[in-house]
Design goal:
This protein has 370 residues and is of the alpha+beta class. Helices cover 40% and strands 25% of the residues. It is built from 9 helices and 12 strands. It has helices at residues 39-45, 49-52, 64-77, 118-165, 169-193, 206-221, 242-262, 326-335, 366-369; strands spanning 24-29, 34-37, 81-89, 95-105, 110-117, 202-204, 226-230, 238-240, 270-283, 286-298, 340-346, 349-357. 27% of the residues are buried.
């Protein structure tokens, strides 16, 4: 008779807190069979807890002898044993480089293994720098816009008064130029201040937002570029400002469209929007149990290497005719929803990824709800 395997979460009542850790944690027996795996480990190793339980650790460790040596050393010394730059493989055969720590739980005769991806430290540090820079940029732009708007109003008013006093049409051309340029700068300042206007939060469906953006993009650029949709229609609604989300996605899509049209030798130019769910994800120093991921993918030339790290800074643009405000404003608008934008770009494939937490703590405006 084959003994049925029973998952042992009740064996480890004092380890319930492991469910909330961002690092991957596995508990295995002294024979290296897996008895517990937390959600972070499920995500990293692309396998569910129930599928992993009963499997041997060699399923994931390419150098299983190294793992056994580390585990036995931890048991012998009764202290944690750490190994850096160890290669493991996920259930889907994805190779990952991790730092792992193994400890012997003497009271229960089990090993506890904690794994952290090497690139995770770099990603978190980069996100923190981006967040700090974004806050500094937002404050700078807001203060700059306020300082410029007031003199502009006076300048435009003075030009209008001067225009009334001038009899010569030739001279009026100069005042018309002053008024037109003042209006252009005023419009630019309004764009800079847009993210700081009071949001109108309401229950939002992300696919309705994307479909509105698609309609605007298609009407502006025509059918020269194929717009591909790959949606996960099971994504739930969340609290957000629909108009601000439309503007953020529209800015990114416009950038992609302009890059595709500029590169005339791109075969079958296309813009693809993919929506998926994410869980147990960490960004901006917070862990989110569930989030929506939007990938905006184009097959254009890619972002120029010199501006990859500064592409979200104000006034930075790879387009000679651009203002360099589109992506900076998009980042600020997404940050109002506690989200973030990241970029991965290489020739032939550029991906802007937007992460929006579902439980973002935002409160629906009463006047909007009514």
């Amino acid at each position: 008779m084959v003994k049925k395997y029973m998952a042992p979460p009740k064996i480890f009542p004092k380890f319930e807190g492991l469910e909330h850790l961002t690092s991957a944690v596995i508990i295995c027996s002294e024979r290296f069979s897996i008895d517990y795996m937390n959600p972070s480990a499920e995500i990293m190793l692309e396998i569910s807890h129930d599928q992993a339980c009963g499997q041997v650790m060699s399923l994931f460790f390419e150098e299983f002898d190294l793992f056994k040596h580390a585990a036995l050393s931890a048991k012998k010394s009764q202290s944690a044993f750490r190994e850096n730059e160890v290669f493991i493989r996920s259930k889907q055969n994805k190779t990952l480089c991790v730092t792992f720590t193994v400890s012997w739980l003497g009271n229960s005769d089990y090993y506890l293994i904690e794994m952290i991806q090497m690139d995770q430290h770099l990603r978190i540090a980069k996100e923190e720098r981006m967040f700090i820079q974004q806050q500094a940029n937002a404050d700078l732009l807001r203060n700059l816009a306020h300082e410029i708007r007031n003199p502009l109003g006076g300048l435009r008013g003075a030009a209008q008064l001067l225009e009334k006093e001038l009899a010569s049409k030739n001279l009026k051309e100069y005042t018309e130029i002053i008024i037109a340029e003042a209006d252009r700068l005023q419009n630019l300042m309004s764009k800079l201040l847009t993210p700081h206007q009071l949001p109108s939060y309401d229950t939002t469906n992300i696919h309705e937002v994307i479909e509105r953006v698609r309609g605007l993009v298609v009407s502006e650029f025509g059918s020269e570029i194929e717009f591909v949709r790959d949606y996960d229609i099971s994504l739930p609604e969340f609290v957000g400002d629909r108009e601000k989300l439309i503007q953020a996605l529209l800015n990114i899509c416009r950038n992609a469209m302009q890059a595709l049209l500029k590169q005339s030798d791109t075969e079958n130019p296309s813009l693809k929007v993919v929506t998926r769910s994410e869980r147990q994800i960490v960004f901006n120093k917070k862990k989110h149990s569930a989030a929506i991921r939007i990938d905006i993918v184009d097959n254009g030339p890619g972002v120029p290497e010199p501006i990859k790290d500064t592409i979200f800074y104000p006034l930075v643009s790879g387009n000679d005719e651009g203002t360099g405000l589109g992506l900076s404003l998009a980042q600020n608008l997404i940050s109002l929803h506690q989200g973030m934008i990241s970029l991965h770009s290489e020739p032939g494939r550029t991906v802007f990824s937007i992460i929006l937490p579902i439980n973002n703590g935002l409160i629906i405006n009463k006047e909007v709800a009514q």
